[in-house]
Amino acid sequence: MRFQYSQWNEHSTTDEQKLEQLTKLFNYLVLQTSGDVEEALQWLRQLAEEYGIFDENLSMEELIDKLKELGVIEEANNKFELTTKGIQKIRQDALKEIFSSLRKNQFGSHETPHTGSGVERLSETKKWNFGDMPTNIDLTSTMTNALKRDGIDNFNLIEDDLEVYETENLSSCATVVMIDISHSMVLYGEDRITPAKQVAMALAELIQTKFPKDFLACLTFGDDAQLISLAEIPFLQVGPFHTNTRAGLQMARNILRKCGNVNKQIFMVTDGKPSAMFDDAGRLYKNSFGLDPKIVNKTLDEAVQCRREKITISTFMIAQDPYLINFVEELTKANKGRAYYSSLSNLGQFIFVDYIKNRRKRV
Description:
Layout lengths: L14 H18 L4 H15 L8 H10 L3 E4 L2 E4 L1 H16 L11 E6 L3 E8 L11 H12 L12 E8 L2 E8 L12 H18 L4 E7 L3 E4 L16 H13 L5 E8 L5 E3 L5 E3 L6 H16 L2 E8 L3 H14 L2 E5 L8 E4 L4 E4 L1
Parallel strand pairs: 6-7, 6-9, 9-12, 12-13
Antiparallel strand pairs: 1-2, 3-5, 4-5, 7-8, 10-11, 13-14, 14-15
Helix pairs in contact: 1-2, 1-4, 4-6, 7-8, 8-9
């Protein structure tokens, strides 16, 4: 048997790398088709015909077999559908793509400046108190205390000798992710809903993997707000809706109010423009032309109310329109929260505005 070898270069990819790249492309297409696997595969075939993305080592049919083998898709009723594992894989890919550049920023961490009964050991020590973990006892300091008191000949260990390492107080957190599904997310042929879903799924995956004990909920807001499961995010579609940001914030605040005395935050993924709200009679008041002061003021009032209830709003802005950015600036100031401004073409790079620490930087 003969083997033909080609010259290796730094841009060469292994079969595993090629499979990973094609799987990521498939996952992105699934997001664009709102979870329609059959349509995503059709788009993939069209891309293969135009750009030749497959070769003799991996064909289209072999990729489908691999996706089935990996548990990403399954065949049901003569068509392919996403599995639970497939949805999780999309979240993981979104997290890798979007937040790989934010690792050094410690985004999403729950550390506080206070010491307490947490799990991160510090170098400082303190006297042992009832409830301190025995695994945190500083043996060197404890033994030194006993020896200083009675000497080595009369060694006797008592409770007052015990010293333990200080631990960093890691607080629990309750989070609501809000996703804008209004018509403006696809207006003028610009796809904003796909990157919005990517950001939302990345946030959900980050919280679930790094802080699995935290409370996490997700809702959409268009004409009204609706609670959804995390598994529904890839299948979200934009409707003929206006943007009732106020209703979304109200629902998020009501959800977080039931979470007790923990840190509370809202992650809002939007293109920024509120265009609807319910009036006192429960009727939907809407205005799609510009920024209606009546709608804007009520929405800002809700941001202030969130601040009073110690709920921080972090807005992920999927647009670059100056007047939309101005509104997000006002909302972030009112809440004393945070804002991330991103272009559609480079979701991994954000302009980060933190009104809590009065800081602005590119991350």
